[in-house]
Amino acid sequence: MPAVAAAAAAGNSRVEPLHTWSQHTLPVTSMYLGFGDNSALLVTASLDHTVKLWSLTTGRLLRTITLPVGVTAVTLDAGEHVLLAGCVDGSIWEASLVGQQLAAPSAARGPAAAAAAAAAAGVVGGAGSCCYEGHSKAI
Fold first, then answer.
1. How far, in Å, CA of 103 to CA of 96, rounded?
2. How far is C-alpha 120 from the geometric centre of its chain's CA atoms?
3. In this structure, which of 4, 51, 94, 103 has its CB flanked by the most CB atoms within 10 Å?
């Protein structure tokens, strides 16, 4: 890492972080570091029911996705066009990152209560989004 090498060369033993993120209200359970130089993404997931997308270059929060349950795992597809979030109830939520605001789907969710909770929280499903169910334990 250039910052570490530069600090060592200058005789500085302390390296400061470029960015810190503290917007989750419960523990972060998963992180995904995307590809790309100036457009690299960091995706964080938390038990606070949110997935957050960050610009790794600027440190700025780009989007927040609110799900009906806590999130334990997160990843993006190889092209970084689709987000997949595994949840504490065993569901896997899919959301398209292309051409629309990120949101948890409401229509594809099995239990109507989860869909109603998502809708009440201001989460609106979009085309290309769905929820996969069937796991009996957290993902």
1. 8
2. 20
3. 51
Q: Taking every pair of C-alpha atoms in the chain, what is the biggest distance, in angstroms? A: 60
Higher-scoring residue by pLDDT: 107, 114: 114
CA distances from 7 to 17, 59, 68, 76 (A): 12, 21, 44, 33
pTM here is 0.68
Instruction: Using alpha carbons, select from 68, 72, 96 the residue that is nearest to residue 82.
Output: 96
45-66 confidence digits (pLDDT tens): 999 999 999 988 899 999 998 9
Closest-CA residue to 121 (of 113, 111, 130, 110): 113
Residue 104 near residue 68 (C-beta atoms within 8 A) = yes
> Given the structure tokens 């979030």, which residue do they identify?
85
